[in-house]
Design a protein that fits this description.
This protein is α/β, with parallel strands linked by helices. The protein has six helices and 15 strands. It has two domains: 210 residues, FAD/NAD(P)-binding domain; 104 residues, FAD/NAD(P)-binding domain. Bound molecules: flavin-adenine dinucleotide.
């Protein structure tokens, strides 16, 4: 029995080249495991899609991976700092990354797992791995409102920057950090901003340095806000808002940002029927191994709606724990094969 692996059989296939997937890749490399990282976009694609001028809420040391220092000239790194840092780390470590390659399905296989992929040129491909680490985050999958007009051109679930909205009526749907940051940035960019919030108040998770700023803008009337209300229709130049008592009114709106959160999309793992907790989080052990032996899920990907509890700061340690366990398992296997 030949021990030499077939050309595309890796010890570990890592799905997602975000900060957590990159941390897993560095750990694999340092453990001497053969690995490949597959990302449907560019390296740290989610961060690339973040608001153009966003700043992280944690400081640089909490975003570091592989003991590579993150050096910035300001307290809180911004999106550009993070893109540059993770790009440089990937280059310095010469990580084995296949960008623009999406994983469309994962199946159990004799050697471990078969991964179906769609490469950049659109050609489907297949590779095999003994173990799989899923680090796909949540930012690709916005929570949809399920209302008419949601697929029109004058609404987005992603905020970039304020410049093109100067002087326009912009409606921001949501009550969390993304909505708060966007509303303030748009107002400072000269847009006429109205927030529509289903709850009676803003979310308690709003960053402590952002909340008073937004509350004062609302109090002074610079930013309009409708609480206990929800948008029920997106029209060409108005949105229809429904109050708690069921009455509705029209809000003149040139563009709408629906910043209502995101959820992990693990549909590409459906063949494996992973066990879930009642709150839809995956059943994972301390090493982040799922109910399918050999498949590990790290970072926010396995935590369903708990996106505000798992982030880079702790997700990077998930990756290290998972790869340490994989190394232990494969070492045990190699020993077995040697006898
Ligand atoms: C505006 C904002 C501010 C934030 N600020 C902070 C902060 O200050 N500190 C902090 O620690 N965290 C912060 N977070 C959270 C943090 O960014 C995420 O928790 C983190 O990005 C998760 O890293 P990840 O590697 O698990 O996932 P991501 O960074 O989301 O990476 C997942 C990668 O997987 C790829 N992918 C997805 N599906 C597939 C597939 N089927 N095939 C191939 N590739 C796939 C995506 O393209 C993406 O590149 C913030 C998040 C947002 C939205």
């Amino acid at each position: 029995m030949s021990l030499a692996p077939p050309s595309d059989l890796f010890d570990v296939a890592i799905v997602g080249a975000g900060p957590v997937g990159l941390a897993a890749a560095i750990s694999c490399k340092r453990a001497g495991l053969s690995y490949v990282v597959l990302d449907k976009g560019c390296v740290v694609n989610a961060i690339f899609e973040y608001p153009t001028y966003m700043s992280f809420f944690t400081t640089a040391p909490e975003l570091e991976i592989g003991n590579h220092p993150m050096v910035t000239g300001h307290d809180k790194p911004d999106r550009r700092d993070a893109l540059m840092y993770y790009r440089l780390v990937a280059q310095r470590e010469a990580l084995n990354i296949e960008q623009y390659t999406s994983v469309t399905a994962v199946h159990a296989a004799p050697a471990g797992f078969t991964l179906e992929t769609n490469r950049r040129d659109g050609i489907p491909d297949v590779l095999e791995a003994r173990r799989v680490v899923v680090a796909t985050g949540y930012y690709d999958n916005p929570l949809h409102l399920g209302i008419s007009g949601e697929d029109s051109a004058n609404i987005s679930h992603y905020y970039t920057e304020a410049h093109p909205f100067m002087g326009l009526n912009v409606t921001v749907i949501g009550a969390g950090n993304s909505a708060a940051d966007a509303a303030l940035d748009l107002w400072r960019g000269g847009a006429k901003v109205t927030m529509v919030v289903r709850a009676p108040d803003l979310k308690s998770t709003i960053k402590y340095w952002v909340r008073p700023d937004l509350e004062n803008r609302i109090k002074e009337g610079s930013i309009a806000a409708h609480f206990n209300s929800r948008v029920v229709d997106i029209g060409q130049d108005v949105v229809t808002v429904e109050r708690q008592d069921g009455t509705t009114f029209e809000l003149p709106t040139h563009f709408t940002f629906a910043l209502t959160g995101y959820r992990p999309d693990l549909s590409f793992l459906s063949d494996l029927n992973l066990a879930q907790e009642p709150d839809a989080c995956l059943v994972l052990d301390e090493q982040y191994e799922s109910s399918t032996p050999g498949l590990f899920v790290v970072g926010s990907a396995g935590f369903a709606g708990k996106t505000n509890q798992v982030f880079i700061e702790n997700g990077r340690h998930h990756a290290e724990a998972a790869v340490a366990e994989i190394t232990r398992q494969l070492a045990g296997r190699a020993e077995l094969l040697a006898h």
